[in-house]
Design brief:
Blueprint (H helix, E strand, L loop, with lengths): L24 E6 L2 E2 L3 E3 L5 E2 L1 H13 L2 E6 L5 H6 L5 E2 L7 H4 L3 E2 L9 E6 L13 E5 L3 H10 L4 E5 L2 H9 L5 E5 H10 L4 E8 L8 E2 L4 H17 L1 H9 L7
Parallel strand pairs: 1-5, 1-6, 9-10, 9-11
Antiparallel strand pairs: 2-3, 3-4, 6-13, 7-13, 8-11, 8-12
Helix pairs in contact: 1-7
């Protein structure tokens, strides 16, 4: 990632009530473990592309943003339970998720998923058999592995991508499937121990903000400002700040 500066969220005690009016607080769930989309910085605060983007959207909409750190696999249930108003956590728009929640328009284009292996190993990706594959639970990568490659192989799911990568480094996995936009700093941090292999696989319809289906005004407010930022170039500029190999609109 190109920079690790935290743009502080404006906090307010006012609850968001479903109307996107001035100075109400929008509670935004993020994982804090998915750099450069979102992470916890050295000051212990949420930071990253989505934190900057959420703050900019709230600024333009005259809303206050409060970011809530939430475990990935509980994000959608907690959204539905009303524990926050919106999810910005590198979450891809998929037909499966659209059965439960709604999304804004995408603010990051569809990014191919990739496979990572240990340096010095090799696999026939056209005929994988007897290998241990890892991914983060409840992700589109996990769904792809379970639907496409589980037969004749073992699929192991982890609470975080880091858990899968650590098991790959330890030799407990053979292959990890991961978001292409997330992989570069991970591979770089291993000092050559891991490499990309196999095909890229495009999954999902880009990354968007998840909302409850009934919160149409909140969805439309965020979608309108995302469209404005695409049109004025500021969204591409923000993407370029945070991603080493950015995919632009």
């Amino acid at each position: 990632m190109k920079r690790l500066l935290f743009a502080a969220a404006t906090l307010s005690m006012a609850a968001f009530t479903g109307s996107a009016s001035a100075q109400q607080t929008v509670r935004i769930a993020t994982e804090g473990a998915y750099a450069p989309y979102n992470f916890i910085n050295e000051a212990g605060q949420p930071a990253g592309f989505e934190i900057d983007l959420g703050n900019e959207i709230c600024l333009r909409a005259e809303l206050a943003c409060e970011f809530v750190i939430t475990a990935w696999d509980s994000m959608i249930p907690n959204l539905l339970a009303g524990n926050y108003d919106l999810i910005m956590a590198g979450m891809s728009i998929t037909e499966e998720r659209l059965q439960t929640i709604d999304f804004t328009d995408d603010y990051y284009p569809p990014d191919p998923a990739v496979f990572v292996i240990r340096t010095g190993t090799a696999f026939d990706f056209d005929a994988l058999a007897g290998v241990r594959l890892g991914a983060q639970t409840a992700t589109i990568q996990a769904g792809y592995l379970q639907d496409t490659l589980a037969t004749g192989n073992t699929v192991v799911l982890f609470d975080t991508f880091e858990g899968a990568v650590n098991d790959l480094l330890a030799g407990n996995l053979d292959i990890v499937m991961i978001d292409g936009g997330f992989v570069a700093p991970i591979i770089e941090a291993t000092g050559g121990a891991l490499v990309l292999a196999g095909p890229e696989v495009t999954l999902g319809g880009g990354v968007g903000a998840g909302v409850r289906k009934e919160d149409t005004e909140l969805r439309d407010t965020f979608t309108r400002i995302i469209a404005e930022m695409k049109a004025d170039g500021s969204l591409n500029a923000l993407i370029a700040e945070w991603f080493d190999d950015p995919m632009l609109f």
